[in-house]
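ok so i was messing around last nite and threw this chain in just to see what happens. nothing serious, just curious
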Amino acid sequence: MRRRVADTDLDVFPLALGTSMFGWTLGATAAEAVLDRYRESGGNFIDTADSYAAGRSEQLIGSWLRRTGSRDATVLCTKIGRNPENLGLGATGIIRAVEASLTRLQTDHIDLLTFHLDDRDVHLEESLSAVDSLIRAGAVRYLAASNFTAERLLEARVLAANGLPRFRVLQSHYNLMHRAEYETSLALLAGAQGLAVMPYFALANGFLAGGYRSRSMIAPDVRGMRIASHLTRRGTRLLTVMDRIAEDFDVKLATVALAWLQSKRNICAPVAGVSSPEQLDAVMAAATFRLSRADIIDLDRATAGN
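result:
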């Protein structure tokens, strides 16, 4: 069931646990319950960032890894570049950010270090050179990019050809309601460069789980505004197709949404977060659920145009 991440030696469960809510809407007890359930269900791939809850997400994960003794069985991905204490991708900031993450995560290495953004104020060569020193020191194993354009990924590949670290993974905003950004340029490049793709916002902030059918159900906050943007004719059309598939196979809508992502080329592990251990069941079920070709076509047609 596990998948190899590009040409690395990392074997991961095909669904990464997103932890942006850890330390924010989920406290320590609730976060550890989610982590326990994820591990018990076969999961081994945790995605976090030094900016999530100002580092609190990493702290909670680190405490859990130490308590359970599961660090060696866990593939740990963390992102840097957006924490105000080490903002951007300058060499000094990268080194300090990684040192701080290692402390919070209570580990001596990060399996997959991700640039959380493309810092255009810093030469990419400087950023990659800093990571090179971290890889040589054993603090980082592999490198990933998030929110990079195809043009910048091409530039990074040229630098890698001259001996600097190469991106192995691309994190990109991609789901049934948000398709054009990835499918029009990044998908082709990911295939050409052999990048493993980790779609984030895989459930469109919860919209694709099917729990939000009207604006009256949505909280007036940033997440609610994102969900509300999907309450269109296109969104309603999609939910109708997803409802039919979910009923046909007796699965949850979240399972359908994640299975659609996994049907696409180069997708390694969508990133999905949950608010409770119980919500994980539908997420984890997507690892073994396969959509028929006809159902994939129906989903594609329902969301064509974005």
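not much to say yet. The mean pLDDT is 94.
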